[in-house]
From TrEMBL:
Binds 2 manganese ions per subunit. The gene is rocF. It is an enzyme of class 3 (hydrolase). CDD domains: Arginase. InterPro entries: Arginase, Ureohydrolase, Ureohydrolase_dom_sf, Ureohydrolase_Mn_BS. This is Arginase. The lineage of its organism: Bacteria, Pseudomonadati, Pseudomonadota, Betaproteobacteria, Burkholderiales. PANTHER family: ARGINASE.
Length: 305
């Protein structure tokens, strides 16, 4: 039976510190995401783009930039992702900035509660995204989604999925982290997030990292991957607004995705922070599509089952 996949565009940069990721969904479509997935045996429906308020590009208020707009977009995302899961489909959210992970993952967590499933979240990112209004240096909410999902944030975001907190820190594995603000670092340690930063990957390798990140998955576990394109080294993926040197190489990222695919547990996906305005001839979108293909079973080597 073919895998039933839905593409959901969320063209907004209201949570980001640079404009341009609102063009990310179209760049992924131009890079042939749907045909690539279809060649891998998926039955793909492109649901088009969600609608939400424009980016007012204003200064933070009480530690948050554009809070009402971020809430509106995340409500749209939550409804759309939840609907696809209820229909037995695998939603791929095409961002847009990473604040949208609040709506996406709160919908996944709601679905898992109702289905009696466990949830594992792999957060592939250069950043921990665990800021709050009290410790954020910028007020940009794309630096806060994991904290909000764990119950630390404004009520309209924290309560989005109808359960507070939406997820437990122990359900999250962060991979590729290499840029964490000082206050955020203390909060990450305090909350006990499991973080495989780039030093860990350098010392232990991507294979060992992913074995630990995927450990204890079973048939009753829903695996959600939240893939921020700045997870990759900027030499591989320049089209992001928050580049941080020293990220995974192309091959390390391929191995990461292939091992996730081998688990057989992928149930939902975010692809976030692609900024075509900063890209070179859509290179980053094309790399992202290649990695998504690996998530859905495209392997570098011919392997016997």
């Amino acid at each position: 039976m073919p895998r039933l996949v839905s593409l959901i565009g969320a063209p907004t940069d209201v949570g980001a510190g640079a404009r341009g990721v609102s063009m990310g969904p179209e760049a992924l479509r131009v890079a042939n995401l749907q045909p690539v997935l279809e060649r891998l045996g998926c039955q793909v429906l492109d649901r088009g783009n969600l609608n939400g308020p424009p980016n007012p590009w204003q200064a933070p208020v009480d530690g948050y930039r554009h809070l009402s707009e971020v809430v509106a977009w995340n409500r749209e995302v939550h409804t759309a992702v939840y609907h696809e899961l209820q229909a037995g489909r695998l939603p791929i959210l095409l961002g847009g900035d990473h604040c949208l992970g609040i709506g996406s993952i709160s919908a996944v967590a709601r679905h898992c509660r109702e289905q009696g499933k466990k949830l594992r979240v792999l957060w592939l990112d250069a950043h921990a995204d665990f800021n709050t209004s009290l410790i954020t240096p910028s007020g940009n909410i794309h630096g806060m989604p994991v904290a909000c999902l764990c119950g630390h944030g404004p009520a309209p975001l924290v309560e989005l999925g109808g359960h507070v907190p939406a997820i437990q820190p122990s359900w999250v594995r962060q991979i590729g982290i290499r840029s964490v603000d000082e206050g955020e670092k203390r909060f990450v340690h305090e909350m006990g997030l499991e973080v495989f930063d780039m030093r860990y990957i350098d010392e232990m390798g991507m294979r060992h990292t992913m074995e630990l990140a995927l450990a204890m998955l079973d048939a009753h576990t829903h695996l959600h991957v939240s893939f921020d394109v700045d997870f990759l080294d900027p030499d591989v993926a320049p089209g992001v607004g928050t580049t941080v040197r020293g990220g995974p190489t192309y091959r390390e990222a391929q191995l990461c995705m292939e091992m996730i695919a081998d688990s057989g547990r992928l149930g939902s996906l975010d692809v976030m922070e692609l900024n075509p305005a900063l890209d070179v001839r859509n290179q980053t979108a094309e790399v992202a599509v290649e990695l998504i293909a690996s998530l859905f079973g495209k392997s570098t080597l011919m392997r016997r089952g």
